[in-house]
Design a protein that fits this description.
The chain has 310 residues and is mainly α. The chain is built from 12 helices and no strands. Helix 8 packs across helix 10. Keywords: Hydrolase, Membrane, Protease, Transmembrane, Transmembrane helix.
Length: 310
């Protein structure tokens, strides 16, 4: 099917540049509102001291520990979900163009996405390793120290959120970290922001890569920037070539869900290390297989009529 038209036949009442400004303002506003709701609730229930503890993410505080999921869901996930819905439906009045939730696509794409995510794992692992070994120049050592301390603090919060003592804890994490986050972030980035940037640049490839860069920057993790950007590129092509957000949501869920399951089984330090003798061969093969699968995905998605479409 031809999925280019919805990107370029846009509402000319607002230019893509102004759409980006409106989207940015809405993002800041709703994220601020979500955080304010959480802090207001904490203030009313526990008092001002608890607000200070939550603001500093003091993990020694029982109040903070008991309300981290509230901060995650109400302060981050729900606002991210509402941003594209409000923008697409209420501001632009083009919900399908910005959400991409109703486009039919071949069920075969689901299997290709699964294979692509599996094939890309060695390459992503190599990017993770490369990114973690990056060092700042001597003139920016203070910034490097700040970045490392900030990310170490964020990892401690993640460790608390992903502390799973039972199957129910894992299922809850899969639903909230895996599925809910995947849906919210894909609607926001691949549905909404990517559409804006493609319309602005009039080039799907530029829009996909710019969105991937902003997607990774949004997470504010320097030592995870490259693999997250690479994932964003995959999610972007999954969306553009199929015309639907759901293959990207599925890929995003596979990535997050795998991390949750591995954290449950092995702990957060249970990274799978590549055998040294395959340090270059396996990532190279991973790239080749991933590209081949992406080309297959594009071919299947481009068919105008496919039996068994969903």
């Amino acid at each position: 099917m031809n999925t280019e038209k919805p990107y370029y036949n846009h509402n000319r009442a607002m230019s893509p540049a102004m759409q980006l400004v409106a989207f940015t303002g809405l993002t800041i506003g709703l994220l601020t509102l979500g955080t304010a709701i959480v802090f207001g609730y904490i203030y009313l229930r526990y008092g001002p001291a608890a607000v200070s503890q939550l603001a500093s993410l003091n993990l020694a505080s029982p109040v903070v520990l008991n309300n981290l999921w509230l901060l995650q869901v109400v302060g981050t996930t729900l606002p991210i979900l509402f941003i594209p819905i409000v923008f697409g439906k209420l501001i632009m009045h083009e919900p399908e163009a910005y959400l991409r939730i109703n486009t039919k696509f071949s069920a075969l794409l689901i299997l290709i996405v699964l294979a692509t995510m599996a094939a890309s794992m060695p390459f992503m692992e190599s990017l993770i390793t490369f990114n973690r070994k990056m060092v700042f120049p001597d003139s920016l050592k203070k910034l490097e120290k700040f970045v490392k301390e900030s990310e170490a603090s964020a990892q401690k919060v993640t460790a608390v959120l992903l502390k799973m003592n039972s199957w129910w804890d894992m299922i809850k994490a899969l639903l909230l970290v895996g599925l809910a986050t995947a849906i919210a972030e894909e609607l926001m980035f691949r549905g909404c922001l990517q559409t804006i940037l493609i319309r602005w640049q009039k080039n799907a490839h530029v829009g996909i890569w710019l969105t991937a860069i902003l997607f990774s920057a949004f997470h504010m993790e320097f030592y995870g920037f490259l693999p997250r950007m690479a994932l964003g590129v995959l999610f972007g092509y999954f969306t553009v070539w199929s015309g639907s957000i759901w293959p990207a949501v599925w890929a995003h869920f596979l990535n997050n869900g795998t991390a949750v399951v591995f954290a449950y089984i092995y702990g957060l330090n249970g990274d799978v290390k590549l055998d040294a003798k395959f340090d270059y061969i396996l990532p190279l093969l991973s790239i080749l297989f991933t590209v081949a699968l992406l080309l297959g995905y594009r071919k299947v998605a481009s068919r105008k009529t496919i039996a068994g479409s969903i």
